[in-house]
């Protein structure tokens, strides 16, 4: 094969290698494997047409020599490209990785610089030392002109080595700015705020700031709220009611358990702290709102005045002094707060409240068992109860009940057994309305009967959904579905 033919073949092969990189086949190992194989063939051709790339032997013809120089220079650059392509696999950094690729980018830059210097020295036979000296002077000038940019770059290198945060982490900067990292590069990080804005923060500024990573060691977030009430309310009871509020708030983690404490005392008001944990920062706003709602609920049903600790304005709510243990609203007021009984007149509610039986429950006492008989309406006046169900030997919690909640209408209307177990998580006070006391009122008031019927329908629909979800969540034996498929095709 003539030299000209080999040069043409080498040129075509170089074009194929470049095209292979441009296509970007997936997976990465296949693309790099093909590139490595083609580069080996290209190396063999380079050895034939120009000798060793570090000591090329050029043809006497100037045009052929220029062609040879171009192919050998291309060999150095393609070799650098192959090395850069292998680096991410060595460093275990995929393209979609959440880790910043600053380390691999730095090595890639050094590789390309080395390839260019080798090309200048070996292929074009230019003095590298003079070039480096000139480059050094230029580098000093550029460094002085780009101090801030270089500070960002070196801070980015430190971030790439240390990994204090990665893409997807939620961070707080200097205690005032918070968001989720969406991109990390040489110069800056991009943070998406809770308002869905993208903020670009230079790495040099980040390196000087106090950064709190909310996603490590876990995404759990601890927080607290403070409430104030009238100082005449006994602190031990207020702390108990605040704990009940935390227990009734969905998405508050049971471990670590929520805590309550007396934060400040005063002549008119006392302030209390409620500390709690949520699984993720995204839940924090909703949980705070729900927790404050539960605090209002507890204070309402126990007659505690909610006040503004920083003002001397008139407090909200009824006045009660020196509340006794687990005091509650009067029975007629409890009935007035329940939507079921809003159709009744005040006199009817008062008459019905006289038939309510007060029951005190200690913590962990069982009020109703699944499958048992309960033909009474139970109204919760104080405390926290937990409803659970057992389906196919699998027990799960359905929900929790607090002051103002009620249950038992299913048994009153249909006589069906209890669909679940009701357990007192704390000391509780409940009021019981028996079926024989409710029947005359239901018969005399069609609106009340319709309200009970609607409540029963909602309860039955909820139980059906809960049962379906519980059955779906329980996996069958490993070979269950395979056996069903085989049986289907045999029929």
From TrEMBL:
Family of this protein: Belongs to the MscS (TC 1.A.23) family.
Keywords, comma-separated and alphabetical: Cell inner membrane, Cell membrane, Ion channel, Ion transport, Membrane, Transmembrane, Transmembrane helix, Transport
Name under which the protein is recorded: Small-conductance mechanosensitive channel
Domain Cyclic nucleotide-binding: residue ranges: 340-442
Membrane topology, record value: Multi-pass membrane protein
Organism of origin: Labrys okinawensis
Transmembrane feature ranges: 6-25, 32-51, 71-92, 104-124, 130-146
Function: Mechanosensitive channel that participates in the regulation of osmotic pressure changes within the cell, opening in response to stretch forces in the membrane lipid bilayer, without the need for other proteins. Contributes to normal resistance to hypoosmotic shock. Forms an ion channel of 1.0 nanosiemens conductance with a slight preference for anions.
Gene Ontology CC terms: plasma membrane
A single GO molecular function term of this UniProt record: mechanosensitive monoatomic ion channel activity
InterPro entries the UniProt entry points to: cNMP-bd_dom, cNMP-bd_dom_sf, LSM_dom_sf, MscS_archaea/bacteria_type, MscS_beta-dom_sf, MscS_channel_2nd, RmlC-like_jellyroll
Entries under Pfam families matching the protein: cNMP_binding (PF00027), MS_channel_2nd (PF00924)
Listed PANTHER family: SMALL-CONDUCTANCE MECHANOSENSITIVE CHANNEL
Quaternary context: Homoheptamer.
Subcellular location: Cell inner membrane; Membrane
């Amino acid at each position: 094969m003539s030299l000209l033919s080999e040069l043409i073949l080498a040129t075509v092969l170089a074009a194929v290698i470049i095209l292979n990189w441009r296509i970007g086949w997936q997976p990465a190992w296949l693309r790099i494997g093909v590139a490595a194989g083609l580069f080996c063939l290209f190396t063999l051709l380079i050895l034939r047409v120009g000798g060793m790339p570090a000591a090329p032997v050029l043809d006497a013809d100037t045009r052929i020599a220029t062609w040879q120089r171009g192919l050998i220079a291309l060999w150095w650059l393609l070799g650098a490209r192959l090395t850069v392509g292998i680096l991410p696999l060595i460093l275990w950094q995929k393209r979609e990785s959440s880790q910043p690729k600053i380390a691999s980018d730095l090595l890639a830059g050094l590789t390309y610089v080395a390839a260019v210097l080798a090309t200048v020295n070996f292929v074009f036979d230019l003095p590298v030392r003079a070039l480096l000296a000139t480059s050094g002077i230029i580098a000093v000038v550029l460094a002085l002109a780009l101090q801030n940019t270089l500070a960002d770059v070196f801070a980015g290198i430190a971030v790439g080595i240390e990994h204090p945060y990665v893409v997807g982490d939620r961070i707080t900067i200097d205690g005032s700015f918070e968001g989720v990292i969406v991109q990390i590069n040489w110069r800056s990080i991009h943070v998406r705020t809770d308002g869905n804005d993208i903020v670009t923060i230079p790495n040099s500024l980040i390196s000087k700031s106090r950064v709190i990573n909310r996603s490590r060691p876990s995404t759990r977030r601890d927080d607290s709220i403070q409430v104030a009430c009238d100082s005449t309310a006994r602190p031990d009871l207020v702390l108990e009611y605040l704990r009940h509020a935390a227990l009734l708030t969905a998405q508050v983690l049971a471990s670590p358990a929520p805590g309550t404490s007396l934060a400040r005392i005063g002549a008119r008001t006392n302030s209390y702290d409620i500390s709690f944990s949520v699984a993720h920062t995204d839940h924090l706003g909703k949980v705070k709102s729900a927790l404050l709602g539960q605090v209002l609920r507890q204070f309402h049903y126990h007659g505690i005045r909610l006040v503004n600790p920083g003002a001397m304005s008139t407090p909200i709510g009824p006045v009660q002094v020196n509340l006794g243990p687990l005091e509650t609203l009067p029975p007629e007021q409890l009935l007035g707060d329940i939507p079921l009984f809003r159709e009744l007149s005040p006199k009817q509610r008062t008459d019905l409240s006289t038939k309510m039986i007060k029951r005190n429950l200690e913590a962990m006492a069982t009020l109703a068992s699944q499958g048992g008989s309960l033909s009474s309406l139970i109204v919760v006046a104080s405390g926290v109860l937990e409803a659970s169900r057992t389906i196919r030997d699998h027990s799960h919690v359905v929900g929790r009940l607090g002051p103002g909640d009620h249950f038992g209408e299913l048994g009153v209307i249909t006589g069906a057994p209890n669909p679940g177990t009701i357990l007192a998580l704390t000391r509780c006070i409940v009021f019981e309305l028996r079926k024989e006391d409710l029947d005359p009122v239901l018969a005399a008031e069609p609106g009340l009967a319709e309200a009970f019927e609607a409540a029963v329908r909602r309860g039955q629909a909820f139980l059906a959904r809960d049962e379906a979800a519980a059955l779906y969540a329980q996996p069958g034996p490993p070979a269950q579905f395979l056996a069903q498929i085989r049986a289907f095709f045999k029929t």
